[in-house]
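Run: sequence + nicotinamide-adenine-dinucleotide -> complex structure.
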Amino acid sequence: MSISTQVTRLKNYIGGQWLESSSGQQEAVVNPATEEVLAYVPISNRADLEQAVAAAKEAFQVWGKTPVPKRARTLFKYQQLLHDHWEELARLITVENGKSYEEAYGEVQRGIECVEFAAGAPSLMMGKQLPDIATNIESGMYRYPIGVVGGITPFNFPMMVPCWMFPLAIACGNTFVMKPSERTPLLAMRLAELFAEAGLPAGVLNIVHGAHDVVNGLLEHPDVRAISFVGSQPVAEYVYKTAAAHGKRVQALGGAKNHSIVMPDADLGQAVQQIVNAAFGSAGERCMAASVVVAVGDVAENLIDQLKKAADGLSIGNGLEQGIFLGPVIRESHKQRTVKYIETGEAEGAVLVRDGRKDTAYEDKGYFVGPTLFDRVTAEMSIWKDEIFAPVLSIARVETLAEAVELSNQSPFANGACIYTKNGSHVRYFRENIEAGMLGVNLGVPAPMAFFPFSGWKNSFYGDLHANGQDGVEFFTRKKMITARW
Ligand code: NAD
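>> structure
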C-alpha cells in the first residue's frame, strides 16, 4: 500500500498533487469488521472543489486533443497495473467495505473489465459518413469529448462503480473530478495513483473527498459539463434534477428492490444457491441483490425450507479470513436501521423464518447482521416497499406467474429481476411483461459486463444514457455533423 493511503488524514488529488483540504472538517473511515479507524477523510469545501475543476479544465485543453490511440495506450498500461495490484486492491476493498475477499477479488475484475472496454476508444469513438447525401454533397458525424465530467460514487463498490465512470470518460478525451463515498475513500486514491503511474497527465483525473458540499459544487459548477452519479434513490433523483437544472447531462443510478420469481418447475438446488448468493453476498449491499423472492404455486414450502438450511450454513465474519461468506454491513447506523426493519417486518405480520439478529458466531466487534428470512411478505409492508440494503430477504407467495410479474411491477424500483424455471414460455412471458432493465434466467446477479449498458428502469435510474457500453460512449461524447459540397 502506498504512502498516501497510509497516512491518517487523507488528501485530495488535484492537478497531480496530493493536497490537504482547506475545510478543516473530517470523518473517520472505519473497517466495518473490526471498527478500527483506518484513516480520516476530509469533508472538503467548495474552495477545494473549485481548485479541482480548474485543474481539470486546464488539463482538458491538452488531453481533449491528445490523439485517441495515445490516450488508449495509457489505458492499456493502466489495465496492466491494475492486474499487477489485483490482490492489494481486493484486500483494500475488503478492509474498507467489509465484503469477503473473494467478492472483492471479483469486484477488481469487474473494474479491470471497464478499463479494457475503455481502451477500445479508437473504435468506440468512430463517427459515420455518407459520401452522397445529394449530388456532390457529403455528410459525416464526428465525436468529441465534452469537457470536465463529475463523478459521485457509493460505498458498496469502491472499485467497480468509479471504474464505470472515469476510465471511459477519460479514454473519450474528457477530464474528471471524482467524489468517492466518504465511507470508502481509500480504493479511489489507489485507482488515481496507479493511473498516474500508467502515465496519465496531471489534472486529467482529480479526487475531492467529502459529502454534500462537494456534490452540490459539482452539480452547480458552470465548467462541469456532465454528472455521472451512483447511489441511493432519493439522492439520485436530487442529483438528476439539480444537475439538469444547471444545464448538465446526467446519468443517475439509484436504489433497487429486485424480485426473484421461482416457478414450480425450477431446479430448486440451483435456484437456492443462486438466491442465497444474490441475497446475502456482500451483506445484501448490492444494487443487484435479490431482496424479494416470489414463490409461485406449491414451490413455497420446499423452497423456504432449503433457503433456511442454506442460510444457516453461511459463515459470518471478517471478510479477510478464509472461507467467510458474509461480512458486516457498512456502519453501526446501517446495522441499527436493518434491525429496525426486522422489528417492523414482525410488527407488520410477516413470518420471521430466520432471525439474523441472533447470529453470534463472530467477535464482539463489527457491524454484523446474519442472514434474515421473512415469509408471507405482502406489498403493503414496508419490508417489501423499501430498499433495506442488508442481508434481509423477503418471500412473497403467489399462485401464478402473471401474479408474480404483477407484484414485481408494483415496485417503483426496477433495476433487475430474475426467474428460475426450465420452461421457455415462462421465460418469454417474464421477459415480455416484467418492468425491469436487467433480467436473469436461472442466475442470481444479472449485472451486465462493461461492454453492455447497466440498464435500470423507473426509480432505479434517472437519465437517458446508461452507464457503460455504447451508452457510456454516447454519454461522454458530443457530435459534430459536417455537410460539405465539393
Ligand atoms: P448514498 O446515496 O448515501 O451516497 C452516494 C453518494 O452520494 C456518496 O458519494 C455520498 O457522499 C453522496 N450523498 C449522499 N447523500 C447526499 C445528499 N443528501 N446530497 C448530496 N450528496 C449526497 O448511497 P450509498 O449508501 O453510498 O450507496 C448505496 C446505494 O447506492 C443503494 O441505494 C444502492 O442500491 C445504490 N447503488 C445503485 C447502483 C446502480 O447501479 N443502480 C449501484 C451501486 C449502488
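>> summary
The radius of gyration is 23 Å. The first strand starts at residue 12 and ends at 14.
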